[in-house]
Amino acid sequence: MGVGTRCAPCALLALALPLALPAELLLPHGAERGDAALEPGDDARSAALELGTALHFYGAAVRSLYVATNGIIAVNEPKNEEKYLGQFPVSFGAIAPFMADLDTTDGRGNVYYREDSSSDVLQLASDYIKGGFPEAAFDPSSAVIVTWKLVAPYQGPGEDLTLEEKRNTFQAVLASSDSSSYAIFLYPEDGLQFYSAYSKNDDGKIPAMVGFSQASTNYYFWENPGSYNVIANDEDSIRNLHKSSNAGRQGVWVFEIGSSSDTIVPAKVSSVLASLEPSEEDQELTSKPFMSDYGSTEIRPQYVTSSTDSIEEDQHVTYSVPQLAVEDFITSYQDVTGTPSTESFYRHREFPTAKAPPRQFPAQQFPPQGPQVIDVEEFDETGIVFRYHTDVQQTCANNRHQCSVHAICKDYPNGFCCSCIAGYKGNGRQCVAEGSPQRVNGKVKGRVFVGNNPVPVTFENTDLHSYVVMNHGRAYTAISTIPEALGYSLLPLASIGGVIGWMFAVEQQGYKNGFSITGGEFTRQTEVTFLGNNEKLVIKQKFSGIDEHGHLTISTEMEGRVPEVPSGASVHIEPYTELYHASSSVITSSSTREYTVTEPERDGVASTYTGAYQWRQTISFDECIHDDSLHAASATQQLSVDSIFVLYNRDEQILRYAMSNSIGPISDGSADISRNPCYTGTHNCDTNAVCRAGTGNRFSCECSIGFRGDGNVCYDIDECSEQPGLCGSNAVCNNQPGTYRCECVDGYQFAADGRTCVAVEYAINHCQTGTHGCDIPQRAQCVYTGGSAYICTCLPGFSGDGRACEDIDECQQGHCHPDAFCYNTPGSFSCQCKAGYRGDGFQCVLGGVVKTKCQHEKEVALGSGGTFFQREIRVGQFIPQCDEHGNYVPTQCHGSTGYCWCVDRDGNEIDGTRSGPGVRPPCLSTAAPPVGIGPSVRPDTIPLPPGTHLLFAQSGKIEHVPLEGNNMKKNGAKALLHIPDKVIIGVAYDCMDKMVYWTDISGPSISRASLHGGEPTTIIRTDLGSPEGIALDHLGRNIFWTDSQLDRIEVARLDGRQRRILFDTGLVNPRAIVVDPVRGNLYWTDWNREAPKIETSYMDGTNRRILVKDDLGLPNGLTFDPYSSMLCWVDAGTKRLECMNPNQLGRRKIVEGIQYPFGVTSYGKNLYYTDWRRDAVVAVDRMISVENDNFQPHKRSRLYGITTAFAQCPGGHNYCTVNNGGCTHLCLATPEGRSCRCPDNTVGVDCIERN
Description:
By secondary structure, this protein is mainly beta. 7% of the residues lie in helices and 40% in strands. It contains 12 helices and 86 strands. The strands form 25 sheets. An 11-stranded mixed barrel has the order 29-30-31-41-40-37-38-39-33-34-35. Strands 1, 6, 7, 8, 9, 10, 17 and 18 form an 8-stranded antiparallel beta sheet that branches. A 7-stranded antiparallel beta sheet has the order 2-3-4-5-13-16-19. Strand 33 (521-530) and strand 34 form a beta hairpin. Keywords: Basement membrane, Calcium, Cell adhesion, Disulfide bond, EGF-like domain, Extracellular matrix, Glycoprotein, Repeat, Secreted, Signal. One of its GO terms (biological process) is cell-matrix adhesion. Residues 436-673 form the Nidogen G2 beta-barrel domain.
């Protein structure tokens, strides 16, 4: 950026400063103008303000508004402040000139509001609007004026006393005509004295929020967030609101908030602000950003480009956030490549948008600059690369913590940079003492084919340790537990550890090694192509900087194929050089390398051969872009590597690499560019010393920081002994080589400064101990949120803040039928039809009852006389059975013959379900129980406490029972999830992501929800008949389910994509299904009345066979115990619970004479099954074949599927665990390996099937 450009915002800001908005120039307000005043309080809100002229907001007409203490005007009735403060957008929709936790109690300010159509007020509003939109033909007919006058911030006990006397004054004006509306935010000079407020939801201060939020849209139980625009949301931006403007007058902000468009459009400055000589104070302000935050940021999904067809596939997600630029306040878009568009923002008058909040990514540690663009790229070549730029000025004042403690921070015109102090090396963010040995620790995992072997060698969680002698540039690397089948074949790849040598290579004058450039924080992607057979290996490495122990951390992944090096062979690698080419944040290199393999002797002769490979690598890192001196090093440097040593120890299964490295200028090897001992490593300095090169071959040795001596011999300095008070009180000092470490004594921990030890505040679960301040359990619940924190919420049917809850009188809301009486009860209500009417109180019919199809058919079958005057029933006549709600009972039986069968919701018989006399088939009702009008229950999951639990389905909800050892902790049982209009049958659990999955036959659908809390998500809702059983492969990340109406078994990814039918023949009534992920087997039951069976296959659908077919009745439930490898089932026909080992012959009867079992699961020594007759979960000790416990939920009804939510995943892995098994789409495990399969309907999909 040139000097002239750099000064432009300064000059413009100087022009902008002189005009402030005096408080008296707010639009007239107060009691004398007829304003209503909000009740004093911490969370007051007005009754609905009915508007004479509708407000146009995001393209919709709003006819009433609510004014709230907390600096917002709500479109719908706002929630309690605990539910929205600190969050944006807000679900009820709002206009927010200063949303924060404000307080007007005890005379601390007032909030005034009115709707006004007087000509003087409309003229003032019109003038402000024309200042920002001079070309707009706008003639307002009314204006809503809301004034927050001298309002105070919320102050909790013992909080910041400096805020006690601070007060804010600001005003919002909403002017409307028949076709459009504008918002004017007015901030008088000195009107904003505080910019954040303490929140009851947070331990610290939360900056105020200025913006607009469209109301959410509700679809049954799901909520779709609306669009929103953020104007300012940090203290610096809020502080400058009264000094800046988007409408040509300081402190005035104008926005078009509704017309034919459904977006928010900020004003365009109509003219240059009045020019006056800036004062000294103004001159100081010219170094601060101007208008950088005041572009409106609107988020909507249609402008977000996202390719997420597979979790494993490439992703590219881009969010562009337009900001008001300095030149004429015209905003240009910047695309992913960083090239601004030529069209101005105001010519388009549109924002890129998303109806959900933007994804949050960690801000980069280096100071950003340029238009704010979040660009996230995920691709195979370099792993995940994050880039974040913002035009908010970053300075050392608030970013010093991003630098190392051994670095200085320096401000530049556009940001700041860190640089290591003398005696230390690094990039400023990470610094290590010059000459001190370094240690690197990490993990390695891989999946590598060797030679022509079709089976890969798979390993993970393998340790990598490296030791570096910095003043010699020599790196020693060891990788443990590498199988012999692979170990020798990795010997040629010395550069797996060579990247550590590059990081700490000896630096020649004017050149930098990898640590000086990156600080040990980078990603490295390497592709190795072996010449000859064209084998390829991809190596991905991520360096994460220095950990708390002072060691560098690294993770390594390898995948591909390497040529086979015979077991027992040795490999020799000649010294080589490699050129490193640097550009902005990226370093690349490529070379061809040779190696010599000497095979083990045979008959006294050891044969040798030479191999070669091409090496291409890309190193991506973050660099500080503000300090030009950082780029002074040559863009191309040469790494010289010699004294290379490679070894594989077959007894210890350890792979070792060692090499010496130096970095310097390009050389063809013909000239001796620098043979100084410091560069060649032939000096005699101590390993804890720095070698300083002199002229010619002269050098000197200097002990590293933390050591003392003459450089030839260096001794560690014991800082703890020499400086006894170094660590302060309540801490102990531990001396370490070259440094020391402070550790807090028991009962103390480091404070936020990382140095002072303060007493530990032990967390108390006030909800558990009963020491909370919530209302009684009959009216409120206490929700533990971690630490000693909790929140109080009123139960359904009550209103309040959770600490004081009052009953809602639902009878005032008109829920009952007009011809019914309403009776209010605490937390609920009931309806009863008046005399002469029949019905449930919500629907009342004069003198009769509205009959369902089942009731009508039953009445016809009984005769025209109805149920009171029945005619004689013919022998052999079938009378349909109806439940109390008039629905068909799912199991229909013939009174004369005794045959029973299942029917659907319309009473039609389901094929394959008719059973003989005396046997009732296990039919499922597809009609969800009626949802009474009353207090509704949100379909959120309640966070599951730690430990192992039983999860089971009970019609419209999933309940959980904690397990303590092998015992059910019944007093801890409660509902985990309420979906009252669904019939949940099958339940499965993902132990990795802590998610519960279920099938619903009323929809029908398959859904999931996180056990950390939150709303459920439907993942499959099409092409389903009656999904019943569901199983989950937590290793391969797939789900399997049965469909008894479509008679098939399907598989899909965990998010419901990539569906594939495994079986659609030979099935009549498939129900339960389970998987054995480690062995790659699938098991399921079919209660076909003619031929019930239990079948098995591999998880890819091959090797299907019948496992059990004799002595079965109605096999309902099935479970596989991963610890004992036993397959167990419950049978409602034989009344038995049985088990077997699938790999052996023979069955074992665990218990007999049980009543009507449906689902079954296992944990420890117990089997747990649900029983329809007992409405209970029954525990059976399978070792001694005895029932030892049972649990009946408070509300009695049928229980369906049951599963175990393990606290930790069972051990083991399959071939799909790592990198999806190398498959493009579905990876399905088998006992011998895995199959890559394509989903059905793969038109236009690049999918490869292979075994």
